[in-house]
Amino acid sequence: MESCRVGLKVVLIYVFAVLCNGEDRHTYLVLMEGDPVAFHQQGKPHPNSEASKAMHAKHLINSHDEFLQKALDVGSYTKLYSFKHIVNGFAVHTTPTQVDRIKNASGVKLVEKDRRVKQMTTYTPEFLGLPSVWTQEGGDRNAGEGVVIGVIDSGINPIHPSFAPDHDPTDPYTSKPPHFSGICQGGPLFPETSCNGKIVSARFFSAGAEATGKLNSSADFHSPYDAVGHGSHVASIAAGNHGVPVVVDGFYYGRASGMAPRARIAVYKAIYPSIGALSDVLAAIDQAVLDGVDIITLSIGPDEPPADTVTFLGMYDIFMLAANKAGKFVVQAVGNTGPGPYTVVSYSPWAFGVAASETDRNYPGTLILGNGQKISGVGLSGPSFGQGLLQHKLVLAKDAVRADGDFPKTSEYLEECQHPEALVPEVVLGSVVICTFSDGFYNGTSTLTAVIQTAKSLGFMGFVLVSNPKYGDFIAEAIPFLVSGIMIPRTKDAQVISRYYDQQTIRDKSGCVIRYDGRASIGEGRTASYAGRAPIISRFSARGPDYKDRNRTAVDVLKPDILAPGHQIWGAWNPMSVSDPILAGQNFALQSGTSMATPHIAGIAAILKQNHTTWTPSMIASAMSTTATKYDNQGDIIMARGYEIDSLYTAAPFGFGSGHVDPSRAIDPGLVFPAGYGDYVSFLCSLPNVDPSSIHAVTGGSCTPSFGSPADLNVPSVTITALTGSRTIRRRMMNVGSKAETYVCAGLPPRGVAIDIHPQSFRVAAAGGIQVLDIKLTVTEAINDFSFGELVFTGSLNHIVRLPISVFPVSLS
């Protein structure tokens, strides 16, 4: 009889599922009332004991299950996660009709539809001056010791030398730091022994991705294994071993090192080659805080701002706020959608948003024409054979197309070198072949991988990918080529090549080529050059102002927070490279993106945390911000790349935040601007046109009292998006030096604004001394855009503290 009942229940569930087939299921993120484990205060008699924490966690899980069972129809949903450590909530996969039942239910604080997330994708320790900082910490073998960096990304390649363990059994590095409790979760290509002391733990989160039905079992491994390479790259920049040789295609490029080579890496895989779901990222953040990481680095993020709420109150930002409340420094990529304004995807002042810069290292390539002209280009490849003799026939791919070919007469066949069957082998064999950046490349359907494969299969001596005047200049990144090759991204250079080719190519009356007299060779492109202006804000790096909704309504917060190297960064890779075939087989990759800038800051934060164990997240952020530089290596204000490939313009805080990070100064900043959870709640309560009840519902905090405006939050910058008349902003500074110090303040006012500072000089007591500063800003001229200035505090013990100011002066009264 019982088996019949069970069978009937299964049938009913099946019938319900069939009836609901007309309505697609989605994943929803639900925030519930009640304290999570990390902030629960009711356990007795030992509220912080492990037994009490486990009991409360179990209670939360049960409460989620009971709530769903009562609220939703049987068989209509699948609970994917219970969030229980830093927030109380869950992720559920169900239909819109079902989720409507719980949006206004008792105990529900917020419901948000799951969103997609994406990746925001050597020499930099020397560029940043880190060896001198390492020396202070006992050398590279001690830099970051005892600190755990949680890397939430695409996993890790556990056998890479950047993550090799220290095999000295007497070294305490082989054991976990006492404050950390993470485990090693094994799976395909990732045995539990992969956690080796350097990789201190590893987990994977896939329920949200699996619910979409888009995972591919051949690439989306259910383990912490990184089949992409992105997570490994990020981890190696933050905390990869020191001095690992970088060898690609048999060529030695130098040695790579993480920013904090002695820090431990805790891996949380939450994004997959096929798809990434925000619910998996949130589960990873919750677990990372529970495990005891010190720093969380997020080189991944949502595709777009949250819908129907302010940017600061989306689930992603709420989780980061909770992690900050738990004492974790959260560093976040600002995104790769620059150079336009209002493009940042790091919104909140409790997450440290990182922009990307170029260093002074580049890999210049050269195409040498038969008439001696040299054309600069991009491409990490060796020279064509006999490069100095200019003995290679120069052939335009379009002139080598088979006349009798049975293939589509589209640009990818005719001029983009995508299909070897479209070319006459006898013509291109041993030649330097000109391929053109046309429709396929512009639309994203053509690839460099295909060009290289064509060149290999037909025996090109080399290839040249030139820009197409129809589409203008294109952006070219240095990528290792297995064959000799070069990219010429500038249209003006492509036209030089075209003129030479036309002059040297003999055609019959019908236009068919009867003789190729043009010659060319490709020079060595793998030797680095260290010259030129740096840092420069990368073209792709997202820009401020910060905004609070999808209408891009500006808000009084400076974003980005800081600038760090993110262009052409060497880092660990996975030879599988399932998402980027051109890098298949490689252990290292040269990558660009705010994804690369972010772990630079995470590693530097690890060194600060090691040296100042009691510093809060806001103090770490402040130390880097106030000591950052706004000048480049030529003494000018940092420049930025614009839409045009060669365009440079003087940047401002909405491009570089407080400036380019300077680790040697950040370790001893003099003053910091502390802020805590209560300050962030007051900031939220001060946002215009935001219901205080929604703030209370999400944070549990009270909006009484509240700041007068968001600009009153105690951060190391001042941003006012609409200044009318005058306003006084207060800042509270703490001395973190070992001695009392006297500071003198000088102001560089933004255009259209006068600054009155009180007091202009002060003496602050040692080690925890506080000084309050009032900054009065008055409009002297209304202008139609933001203008920028700064305050500079010069200390008697040689500390220099900078506070950037960004103001939009609207009217005099």
TrEMBL record:
It is found in: Secreted. GO terms for molecular function: serine-type endopeptidase activity. Gene3D superfamilies: 2.60.40.2310, 3.50.30.30, Peptidase S8 propeptide/proteinase inhibitor I9, Peptidase S8/S53 domain. The active site is at D153 (charge relay system), H230 (charge relay system), S595 (charge relay system). Keywords: Glycoprotein, Hydrolase, Protease, Serine protease, Signal. PROSITE patterns: SUBTILASE (PS51892), SUBTILASE_ASP (PS00136), SUBTILASE_HIS (PS00137), SUBTILASE_SER (PS00138). Its main location: secreted. InterPro entries: Peptidase_S8/S53_dom, Peptidase_S8/S53_dom_sf, Peptidase_S8_Asp-AS, Peptidase_S8_His-AS, Peptidase_S8_Ser-AS, Peptidase_S8_subtilisin-rel, Peptidases_S8_3, S8pro/Inhibitor_I9. Residues 144-634 form the Peptidase S8/S53 domain. The keyword Glycoprotein applies. Pfam families: fn3_6, Inhibitor_I9, Peptidase_S8. It comes from the Eukaryota. Residues 35-118 form the Inhibitor I9 domain. One of its GO terms (biological process) is proteolysis. PANTHER family: PROPROTEIN CONVERTASE SUBTILISIN/KEXIN. Belongs to the peptidase S8 family. This is OLC1v1020756C1.
